[in-house]
């Protein structure tokens, strides 16, 4: 689709008004005002999200929509502006999953720091991490001879732990500098404490 996020908004059933409006995000301030006008609403009070579709399927769960619609629109704009967006989206989804993001500020912080992380989608299990490491540290023939004699699951888990990485449903995720993974909020807090 052409849009990143699409919301169908309507008025709360108690208001007994069945007007709806579909909004594609990111949207201009004018488009947001026009949506409110079409609903006959002053602000987002009394407005509900009737349907949601987007590149991040569960994003509507961590945003208090429609009350945080302006902030969500800014988040959508930052996602749209990510360099190499198509390549970065799986990484963003992996980060949101790994950190269990529950608010827009944390999600926006991850977009801001997306370049600090590396996602390897080909590695989806400890065994694959172990095989990848063996192929990296030795020639292919030696790795092939060694494979049947190694507990790949245990070795892979140690490699993941040593790299401060995490397996997500999108692949292996780690920081570019191999430091422990923390949300930008945690990093900022630790820097303030020093």
Structure write-up:
This protein is an alpha+beta fold. It has two domains: 5-81, no CATH class; 115-193, no CATH class. It has nine helices and six strands. Strands 2-1-3 form a three-stranded antiparallel sheet. Strand 1 and strand 2 (20-25) form a beta hairpin. The termini are far apart. The mean pLDDT is 90.
Provide a brief overview of the structure.
This protein is an alpha+beta fold.
Class by alpha and beta content: alpha+beta
Percent range for β-strand residues:
15-25%
Q: Helix fraction?
A: 40-55%
Q: Which geometry do the CA atoms define?
A: elongated
Number of strands: 6
Terminal Cα separation, in Å? 46 Å
Radius of gyration: 22 Å
Give the integer mean of the pLDDT values. Answer: 90
How can the largest sheet be summarized?
3 strands, antiparallel
Number of discrete helical segments: 9
Overall structural domain count: 2
Largest sheet, spatial ordering of strands: 2-1-3
Uncertain spans: none
Which terms summarize this structure?
alpha+beta; 2 domains; elongated; three-stranded antiparallel β-sheet; 194 residues; 47% helix; 6 strands
């Amino acid at each position: 689709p052409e849009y990143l996020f699409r919301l169908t908004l309507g008025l709360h059933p108690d208001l007994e008004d069945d007007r709806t409006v579909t909004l594609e995000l990111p949207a201009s301030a004018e488009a947001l005002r026009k949506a409110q006008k079409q609903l006959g609403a002053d602000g987002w009070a009394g407005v509900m999200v009737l349907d949601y579709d987007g590149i991040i399927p569960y994003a509507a769960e961590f945003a208090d929509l429609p009350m945080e619609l302006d902030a969500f629109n800014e988040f959508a704009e930052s996602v749209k502006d990510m360099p190499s967006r198509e390549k970065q989206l799986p990484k963003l989804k992996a980060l949101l999953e790994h950190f269990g993001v529950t608010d827009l500020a944390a999600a926006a912080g991850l977009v801001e720091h997306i370049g600090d992380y590396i996602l390897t989608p080909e590695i989806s299990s400890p065994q694959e991490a172990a095989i990848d490491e063996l192929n990296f540290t030795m020639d292919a023939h030696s790795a092939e001879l060694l494979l049947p004699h190694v507990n790949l699951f245990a070795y892979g888990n140690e490699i993941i732990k040593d790299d401060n990485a995490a397996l997500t449903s999108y692949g292996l995720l780690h920081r570019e500098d191999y430091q422990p993974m923390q949300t930008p909020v945690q990093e900022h807090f630790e820097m303030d404490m020093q």
